Amino acid sequence: MIALDNRLKTAAAMVRKGVTICDVGTDHALLACHLAMNGAKNVIASDINDGPLESARKTVQQTGVTNVQVVKSDGLKQIDFADDVIIC
Predict the structure, then answer these.
(1) CA distance 40 to 32
(2) Bridge partners of 24?
(3) Which residue of 3, 26, 37, 52 has the smallest Cβ count within 10 Å?
């Protein structure tokens, strides 16, 4: 179980289950992994910086989710498709 702060809980409540979600500026991928464990079809965890991407990869590995893809991207430039997008 991943503990989310109120800001991330609010964001999580705004996306649909069963769809592909992109978490832009994922930082540590807590939100992405939470969504993956709670009904998202797939989640793209993206960030422009290498440090946050490494943190995201560690979170994905620690949680064991298999439906999160970590992508280096400036905003949505490298994202081919997502049903819902979170930027927070």
Answers:
(1) 9
(2) 46, 87
(3) 3
Q: Across 1-88, where does the E strand assignment appear? A: 20-24, 42-47, 68-72, 84-87
Helix (H) or strand (E) holding 63: helix 50-63
Name the token pair of 24.
Answer: 């832009």
In the block, tokens 């289950």 appear at 17
With beta carbons less than 8 A apart as the criterion, state whether 36 and 1 touch: no
Distances from the Cα of 43 to the Cα of 16, 75, 80, angstroms: 12, 15, 12
What amino acid is encoded at 48 in this protein? I
User: How far is C-alpha 84 from the chain's CA centre?
Assistant: 11
pLDDT beyond 80 at 60: yes
pLDDT digits (tens, 9 = 90+) for 75-87: 999 999 999 999 9
